[in-house]
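Lab notes, practical 5.
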Amino acid sequence: MNDQITVTLGGKSITLRPFVRADADAIVAFAAKMPLHDLLFLSRDIREPRVVSAWLDQAESGQITSTLALDAQGAILGCTALVRDEYSWSRHVGDVRLLLLPEGRGTGLGRVLAEHCIATARDLGLAKLTVRMTPDQGAALKVFEDMGFRPEALLRDHVQDSDGVTHDIAIMALDLMRHDATHAAYFTGGAGE
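Output from the prediction step:
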């Protein structure tokens, strides 16, 4: 898969490229701009440099495939992580993590990043993807639902914010083989011919 992709959204050029160690300080700064509530679905607090260092260690070892979305000036607008564990019983499953700055929402960038994760998952031979978010993130839920993800679980009071308030986590999943077969049948002329 190409290491760098440029897309145009709303007349603006956006570059997608892998997350590398030189980006560590920039990703901490990016995370600091995110509303705290938008970080709750992550397993760890990426505002912490040591967490970002561990993330990069996992990316370098191949456990995580991460992509940054950068504006024309090189500022991070969003990022993804496709997390997998090749030694687990679920080595066929990847977990999608996607973050966008509030000003990048509603532009189509979230969909582009999600589609990039799906393409990467196919390249890695994964059969299923999951995504986690808080249930009140309606726009994000809609994007993933429109892409074929379906609700699988609701984990009540699963995360706790810095004020001690608990929040639910919704888990959605996409069966890539079923998705690809349906897409081939209905969108590439496979059905009814």
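Observations recorded by the TA: The chain has one domain: 5-187. The CA atoms of residues 66 and 169 lie 22 Å apart.
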